Amino acid sequence: MELVPWKSFRGVSPFRKEMDMFWNRIFAEKPTASIFNEDWVPAVDISETKNNFIVKAELPGLDAKDVTVSLSGDLLTIKGKKTNEEEEKDEHHHYVERYSGSFQRSFQLPASVKNDKVEAAFDKGVLKVTIPKVEEAEKQEIEIKVK
Fold this sequence. Notes:
By secondary structure, this protein is mostly beta strands. Strands 1-2-7-6 form a four-stranded antiparallel beta sheet, with no helix packed on it. It has a three-stranded antiparallel beta sheet with strand order 3-4-5, with no helix packed on it. 12% of the residues lie in helices and 31% in strands. It folds into two domains: 12-38; 42-84 and 100-135, Immunoglobulin-like. Strand 3 (67-72) and strand 4 (75-82) form a beta hairpin.
């Protein structure tokens, strides 16, 4: 029986380097924004009930006057701007994670909606948009006439 020297997984090394670079990009200094782009993008939940679509957007630090909501057909758009606070004259930042600037999110809704019945409410930094669905036409049997 011969002794064979052990060799590390040399073929895995380039793959390991790629994975390390990938994780370093994800966990960069700007945790959420740097994954996708350098802009601030608020988190949004979209849910559906029997009669409505409900969109909730987290907008901490904003007021209702800083946000606009529009609906064109089945495309819902939420726009806004988060401004920086006044910087103190002798204040020097060592690390900044709070985002500021303009944002825009658009969502295509999967069904027809009642544009004139949309409601939006802003409470404790959360925007809630309730969008009523159009009632589906009732199924109707059609008589076939024989000639």
